[in-house]
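Go through this:
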Amino acid sequence: MKNTMQEKRALLEALCVPTIHLNGSDPAQLTDSLVEAYRALTEACRALNACAPHGRDYYPQGPRVTGKACAQHMARGQKLCDVMDELRVILDSVYDQLTASHGQ
């Protein structure tokens, strides 16, 4: 996950985020959808962790295959984390817009 404000800011600048406005999506539906997607990815991460490679399943293929399988598994997990980071930034942007519009 992106931990520093600088990383989050860079990601926000790179992403196209929705703008809350009268002719756009219902803000509640938009945030609910984003939260649902984030939760689904959280579950996907849990499921992915449950199927982590175990050496007993790879050693017949040679001594380096287990390490390669673990590296590939970690890369899959990182991809999920990257998507979660993007959704979190989008969701934060939507929340910020809603907070700003209610504060006026």
Q: What stands out?
A: Helices lie at 5-14, 27-50, 65-103. DSSP finds three helices and no strands in the chain.
